[in-house]
Amino acid sequence: MLNLTIDNIKVQVENGASVLDACKKAGKSVPTLCFLKDIQAIGACRVCLVEVKGQKDLVASCAMPASEGMEVFTNNNRVRTARKVVVELLLSEHDGDCQTCDRNDDCELQQVARDLGIRSIKYKGAKAERHNDFSTPALVRDSSKCISCRRCVTVCSQIQQVSALVPQYRGYKTIIGPAFAHQLDSVTCVQCGQCSAVCPVGAISEREQIDEVWAALEDPAKTVVVQTAPAIRAALGECFGMEPGTLVTGRMVTALRQLGFDAVFDTNFSADLTIMEEGSELLSRLKKALVDKKEVALPMFTSCSPGWISFMEYYFPDMLDHLSTCKSPQQMMGAVVKTYYAKKLGKKPEELFMVSVMPCTAKKFEAQRGEMNASGVQDVDVVLTTRELGKMIRQAGIDFEHLEDSEMDSPLGLSSGAADIFANTGGVMEAALRTVYELVTGRELPCKNLHVSPVAGLEGIKEAKITFENVLPDFKFLEGVTACVAVAHTLRNARKLVEKVRAGEAHYHFVEVMTCPGGCIGGGGQPRITTNEVRLARIAAIYKEDEGKKLRKSHENKDIKQIYGEFLGQPLGKLSHDLLHTHYHKRDRT
After folding, report:
1. Average pLDDT, the chain
2. Out of 327, 338, 363, 553, which one is annotated catalytic?
3. C-alpha distance from residue 295 to each of 51, 290, 321, 483 (Å)
4. pLDDT tens digits for 528-559?
């Protein structure tokens, strides 16, 4: 342990801690802009300056290692003046049209300026040339608002290992964006939105589609249906000042009804549907490999995360056969709403308008893929992020905190706890194992409280093994077989895992991959800013939702049984294949 004094307060921190860590330990709030806990500490913005006794110059506390006996001053005149000048210089170059900025009142630069008491812009710096990039379905860039903090660069290159955004040129001429000032759609970008999730200002954000939804809601010729992803219920409350991990499922449904949606369905229902199809596909592949002795693409990779699908199409096209052919729950719901539900209403697919609320910006890209029109029209018309739904609720003047709870609509609103945990890294795997193990053995998964604990948590790559014993007659080929599974979250970890599989260094039967840190609960469209503490709070809330349900296994969902009985026939059947499955293709990297 190291002993320091912070503003005359004695503190101890572990060896390797930064001065910023020590300041926080002493209860001192030091402003930051470029800093990202556990990800980036480069001291680029200089907003976190402090004075260290014996040092000639002020130091960036995020990048300065703490040392034994160090005396630090965070709030003297020299420090306050320096911080203020730094932020004033940033403001002089920044497009400060706060009144119409998407990030007004949610802007870290604005908050730091307010905290430092800056009431006017003292310096008249040259403004960066404005370049608006609307080239992708998911993301929008405005270069005039960029403060060159490099947060987006770091998450894109280090967390996702995509490197769609890079710093170019030097000094005042520095530009953050795709190489050679290209548009985002001309480079390898999976549109995961982690850049927008960490941007402190309004330089990059989701492509907002709120007005499209309002227009549909006011169109008397449209039946407007909404679906909500599992992760939304543990994060939406943060848009209204609630603590991370506050479950707001019932209030969310009430708010959606007050917004005017004709039906409120749960993406959890189609998550249960996904498990039926994906679990059956896994068993089919295993049977072909073990009984028919055919060459089969194993391990089978999950296909719920659209950023991950794009990543595979760009970087590992030779491994595309390993992806499950199942569409994501979002797209399954769209296809079912515009066929099964439309038929129940006596309407044509084009008369229904399907809105998804997702924690993910890449879902906007997924919805407009050419493969996603099994109903004859685009299956999902608009995708809103959690943040966009929060804005809509505010625009409508709804007092979200004080709403009463209400239930999802039938017949696509009932879901199991297994579907809830799709929100968490490891959740799809656990949900699949709950069903597959019971279908094969006739017994419940032998794990405490149905949780496969080795695949839970925030470790980057996780593994587990499940042995099938005393199996049912139809599955004798699995007797004594030990299923090896793996889970990865973030594309950096996915890359490591896929490369090991391709090289023959790792052998699995089933692999889950989520694009974003922590899974969907850490998606690029969730309320900012998502730290590991926030992720863990949301994860805990999702498990609580699961454990609070009587129905916790996808195959026991009576409405899932009903849709197969009335409409789909059976998992992997012809109609299921046509509506719920798809294929993917190689994309050229640039």
Report:
1. 96
2. 363
3. 65, 10, 12, 18
4. 999 999 999 999 999 999 999 999 999 999 99
**Residue 120 falls inside a structural domain:** no
304 carries an active-site annotation = yes
How far from 12 is each of 72, 75, 247, 425, 543, CA to CA, in Å?
13, 20, 36, 34, 35
> Is 366 a residue of the active site?
yes
Of the candidates 520, 545, 553, 576, the residue annotated as catalytic is 520
Determine what percent of the chain is predicted with pLDDT higher than 70: 100
Q: Is 324 a catalytic residue?
A: yes
- Whether 281 is catalytic is yes
**Helix 108-115 crosses helix 77-93 at what angle (to 10 degrees)?**
140
Range of the domain at 155: 128-206
CA distance 144 to 119: 21
**Residue 97, domain member (yes or no):** no
Split into its structural domains, the chain has a count of 4
Q: Of 90, 112, 140, at which residue does a domain stop?
A: 90
What mean pLDDT do residues 245-251 have? Answer: 97
Same-domain check for residues 527 and 555: yes
Task: Kindly state whether residues 248 and 378 are assigned to the same domain.
Answer: yes
363 is catalytic: yes
Q: What is the pTM of this model?
A: 0.95
Residues 206, 277, 366, 438: which is the catalytic one? 366
582 near 463, Cβ under 8 Å?
A: no
